[in-house]
Amino acid sequence: MTVRIEADYLIETAWPLDEAAAMLAGEQSSGTFVPVPGETPELKARAAARVEVITPLGEGMPPSLPGAGRPDQLHRQAHITVSWPVENLGPSLPNLVATVAGNLFELNAFSGLRLLDVRLPPVFATANPGPAFGVPGTRTLSGVANRPLIGTIIKPSVGFSPQETADLVAVLCRAGIDFIKDDELQADGPACPFADRARAVMAVINDHADRTGKKVMYAFNLTGEVDEMRARHDLVASLGGTCVMVSLNSVGVTGMLALRRHARLPIHAHRNGWGYLSRHPALGWDFAAWAKIWRLAGADHLHVNGLRNKFCESDASVIASARSLADPMFPGMACAAMPVFSSGQSARQVHDTWAALGTADLIHAAGGGIMAHPQGPSGGVAALRAAWDAAMAGVPLAQAACEDAALAAAL
Amino acid sequence: MTVRIEADYLIETAWPLDEAAAMLAGEQSSGTFVPVPGETPELKARAAARVEVITPLGEGMPPSLPGAGRPDQLHRQAHITVSWPVENLGPSLPNLVATVAGNLFELNAFSGLRLLDVRLPPVFATANPGPAFGVPGTRTLSGVANRPLIGTIIKPSVGFSPQETADLVAVLCRAGIDFIKDDELQADGPACPFADRARAVMAVINDHADRTGKKVMYAFNLTGEVDEMRARHDLVASLGGTCVMVSLNSVGVTGMLALRRHARLPIHAHRNGWGYLSRHPALGWDFAAWAKIWRLAGADHLHVNGLRNKFCESDASVIASARSLADPMFPGMACAAMPVFSSGQSARQVHDTWAALGTADLIHAAGGGIMAHPQGPSGGVAALRAAWDAAMAGVPLAQAACEDAALAAAL
Asked: Measuring CA to CA, which of A285, A375, B163, B325 is 20 to 30 A from A213?
């Protein structure tokens, strides 16, 4: 555990690696483009960022990004680690973002720059809330132990009235679902006001819980301004709801912190927009670094895509993201978030997900995989449950399908 | 003016352009990857996004981004316009972001996707604050009419104590500066607490104002959690300060809105992190689209880089960004923000900036260009003032330098 803030980057540059790394460290601490009189040795000693490690990776690639200097010279890549004294900014997440991911991606020396990971001194654990529920709290509230929560998303994404939404929730409750979420496009539009939707949906969920003892966890998308989010959270809590959802890139770090410091329900964190932060491999953010900001801000569940998804992401990247959420951030405060697998998911991906991840501490959400099952939603839920039971018991998928009609139909 | 929400994108795809555009529109409204029973013709009529325009740009380029489908097939680019009924989300900025810039940059059909611009129906103007001060309010508070505010940044960026900061501010006040800002790395670290810095700096600024009648505008970087920002704003206001600064990508849209709805001072909006949103030309955000979100959320000043800057950005891009800030967003509510030119600026860029922009409604900030002037900071400020006077009077730079010693020394 460091007593300084540390960040790892992939850099690509036509400058000597040590010069390029020093430029980054200078720009993000006491240095500037031209020497100024005030930057004394004493000031540098207390405030300058430090290049800790430079690991060359290779050279001779064409520049990954346009606009960098020396485009016709030899470019090389490296992993570097830079550290900062926490005294520069204190344990403030918004200011951490400005420090480790601020004015550096545009620096002329870099034809590629990507933030890979961050490590924070324990004072950040004291000053920030972290997730209040995570895996254990989610299991308690949902009543699901020792297997993934089987989840789904309300589809169509947007367009249902509150009552149409509640009618679909009733179908899903009867189907045996553990978890349902709003789509990220559905928050508080005039065509489906949040309060009306929450009331209609919770009437169904509470009725189902009264009859069966099972309270389905519904993540209501309360994305909005700070006061709106607090009011919507309070409404959900007053109705007996057990989860709220927020679009992280829509509300930002301070919006998330304001919600978390107010909330008494788990926060389901949606990463929509993640593509513009990550899609180019030599630019932006790796998931591990980005997720640590939100874990420390209080995300209980975080979306990680799914195996063989319908987006551009590789399976290896999906698994690396999910595993990173359990990587302890501090001694005694892991800040672990529960990964949410989704996008084109069905019973077909269960065995591979289990084999790659080695834990059932996840939410496995399928839309079409549940709604479009030949036996209807109850068949879709049963198939996913059967696949997970088999995977965790070491029974191959084909064998399990011989013994379970819903699973056979799903495949 | 549209009654629907409209967004313009650059797309790159190996799919037929109309199919790719329809996939984007479907994913961001009522569609999903597989047909679901609830998406009736009636629901689509009220909730589906619509592809309004497709303008082919060219084809045969290699895929700009990895991970897209059909990598070995012919790729083509186009500009498209997509529209949404405002009933889907209401006039909510956080949910606008999830709609026009959510789960689409990762779509498998796209080897490139960039949000170029957005146009919003007037209901957004009613529901959101916009800038409270902009150019006219900034001119009133700073007492600077009919020319750019000449500004600078406290350098070293971080490391000064509150008193050292105030001592430099005293030098800058004597030099005749109009505007000073904290660096984005300096907010409320233990080495330079916000409250101590604000008190020390405002004592100097108020003293200078008492003696000269000129109150220098200082943008205090209050970036932090929502309650912290409100308290810091109130402290600055109580001390007689006239501006606060916030790092947009650190606080997010809801943090900005919470600050703006509380504030009674101009908000100087710093775009650090902009590189990871924009650096690849086929990914992320164009400035015009991104800035409209923040203009409507209440940014009075917005950073646009500067001509011949030290970053990767071209002069054409800088000017396009600055001009976009004056592009009226609504009838009767332009939401114009004041552009802040900075990065490697000095008297050398003044004539070209004036020629390209055609207005003096800007803040021209120079760090080294002022601090490292041969005659000291007063020479740096005088040179910038002389250059702007000359440019606006149609006097060439070389001729003006013959008549002004400070300007001659700067060149």
From this structure: A375
Q: What value does the mean pLDDT take over residues B26-41?
A: 81
Chain B's closest residue to A303, CA to CA, is B103
Angle between helices B248-262 and B287-297 (to 10 degrees): 30
pLDDT confidence bin for A36, thresholds 50/70/90: confident
A160 touches chain B (CB under 8 A): yes
| Spatial separation of the C-alpha atoms in residues A197 and A240, rounded to whole Å | 14
Q: Tell whether the model's pLDDT for residue A1 goes beyond 70.
A: no
Query: Between B44, B107, B311, which is nearest A106 by CB?
Result: B311
Residues of chain B with CATH 3.20.20.110: 134-410
Cis (ω within 30 of 0) for the bond into A156?
Answer: yes
Q: Mind listing the pLDDT tens digit for each residue in A347-364?
A: 999 999 999 999 999 999
All CATH 3.30.70.150 domain ranges in chain B, comma separated: 4-127
Per-residue pLDDT reduced to its tens digit, A45-58: 999 999 999 999 99
Global ipTM: 0.97
Q: Dmax of chain B from CA atoms?
A: 78
Rounded-to-integer distance, Cα A278 and Cα B66, Å = 11
Banded pLDDT at B33 (limits 50, 70, 90): low
Chain B: residue nearest A278 by CA?
Answer: B276
- Distance, in Å, from the CA atom of B154 to the CA atom of B182, rounded to the nearest integer, reads 6
The residues near A351 (Cβ < 8 Å, ≥ 6 apart) are A387, A390, A391, A396, A397
Distance CA A191, CA A145 (A): 37
Q: DSSP secondary structure string, A362-402?
A: SEEE-SHHHHT-TT-HHHHHHHHHHHHHHHHHT--HHHHHH
Whether B34 shows a pLDDT value over 90: the answer reads no
Topology annotation, domain B4-127: Alpha-Beta Plaits (3.30.70)
Encoding tokens for residue B217? 């505008």
* Residue B161 contacts A, CB cutoff 8 Å: no
Query: Is a pLDDT exceeding 80 seen at residue A37?
Result: no
Which among B103, B108, B257 is the top mutation candidate for probing chain A, defined by the most A β-carbons within 10 Å of its own β-carbon? B103
Residues B172 and B169: their CA atoms lie apart, in Å, by 5
Which residues of B, range 3-22, sit inside 8 Å of A by Cβ? none
User: Count of CB atoms within 10 A of residue A207's CB?
Assistant: 12
C-alpha span between A28 and B158 (Å, rounded): 9
- Secondary structure (DSSP) of A116-150: EEEE--THHHHHS---SSHHHHHHHHHT--SSPEE
Sign of the Cα pseudo-torsion (A49, B311, A254, B180, in order): positive
Give residue B368's pLDDT band: very low, low, confident or very high (50, 70, 90).
confident
Per-residue pLDDT at B39 exceeds 50: yes
Does residue A6 or residue B367 have the better pLDDT? A6
* Model pLDDT for residues B227-256, shown as the tens digit of each residue: 999 999 999 999 999 999 999 999 999 999
CA of B225: which chain A residue's CA is closest? A254
Average pLDDT, chain B: 96
**Measured between CB atoms, which of A66, A88, A372 is closest to B185?**
A88
Say yes or no for a CB contact (<8 Å) between A189 and B90: yes
Give the gap in angstroms from C-alpha B252 to the nearest C-alpha of chain A.
Answer: 4
Nearest to B368 among A36, A88, A279 (CB): A36
Confidence at residue A33, expressed as pLDDT on a 0 to 100 scale: 66
- Cα–Cα distances (Å) from B121 to A167, B43, B124, B331, in that order, read 32, 22, 6, 10
Percent of chain B with pLDDT over 90: 93
The fold of the A134-410 domain, in CATH, is TIM Barrel (3.20.20)
